[in-house]
Amino acid sequence: MPTASINGVSLSYSDTGGDGAPVVFSHGYLMDSSMFDPQVAALAPEYRVITWDERGFGGTRATGAFTYWDSAADVLGLLDHLGIDQAVLAGMSQGGFLSLRAALLAPQRVRALVLIDSQAGQEDPAVTPAYEQLEQTWLEHGPGPVQDIVASIILGPPDGPVDYQPWFAKWAELDRQELTLPFRCLMDRDDITSRLGEIDCPALILHGTADAAIPVAKAEAVRAGLAGSAELVLVEGGSHASNLSNPDQVNVALLEFLRSLP
Q: What are the beta bridge partners of residue 147?
């Protein structure tokens, strides 16, 4: 994958090129740009599809502490690097966190938003201690002791449609100490729910009904808070990564939304 020097970080990205309207996909925590392979395949004949590895994952290193506001600046910087004035920003989980912030930072750059199993608030205090413990075990012993639990939260049950093994292999390669940087970004993020009314671009919200990380109520709160037209599509049986567990349903809704944009 090519790289671009953005905000002092070397970002790894892919770009299908072409003359279609640009759509940029931003991945979730512990994932990388490859999680959107099913969407790239479905959209590339019609759209210019861009994916990228966020700080700490895939081919992009995290060199210091950062926030999702920094990640929002990263995706906007990537648009600059590619000569793109305006794009649809699509993000899964933390990819949605940064996409919402990009829409706040530079609304004129965001044609529309697609939020996949995401939200606008902070982590539920009821689950924070468990996530902190999972991270500590990972740091001390590697992903092995906790990877099945983590995979079930993100990808769905082990007997589901998403194969854990490729992700286990990727997680085994992650630098444990560097992982603390994106983890702290995730856990210490600010709540932007009160600012959703500043975002008036069209939005499609896709949310798995079996999402074990973010309840549907959080997606409903985003829909209610956004100032622009916002459609919530429930992905029946979809995991937290519903674009991977239920790609056909997600792709149909995604294409319908993109084709409806003026």
A: none
Instruction: State pLDDT tens for residues 88-147.
Output: 999 999 999 999 999 999 999 999 999 999 999 999 999 999 999 999 999 999 999 999
Nearest to 37 by CA among 24, 51, 47, 48: 51
Give yes or no for a contact between 242 and 235, defined as CB atoms under 8 angstroms apart.
Answer: yes
CATH code, domain with 102:
3.40.50.1820
Ramachandran assignment for 79, one of left (phi > 0), alpha (psi -120 to 50 degrees), beta (any other) = alpha
Only one residue has tokens 């589901």, namely 160
DSSP 36-100: GHHHHHHHTTTSEEEEEPPTTSTT----S---HHHHHHHHHHHHHHHT-S-EEEEEETHHHHHHH
Strands 48-52 and 9-15: antiparallel
> How far apart (Å, rounded) are the C-alpha atoms in residues 229 and 182?
31
Q: Give me the domain span that covers residue 108.
A: 3-260
Nearby residues of 41 by Cβ (< 8 Å), 6 or more positions away: none
- Looking at residue 181, its amino acid is L
Count how many domains the chain has.
1
Q: Give me the residues paired with residue 232 across strands.
A: 205
Give the predicted TM-score (pTM) of the model. Answer: 0.97
Q: How far apart are CA 35 and CA 243, in angstroms?
A: 8
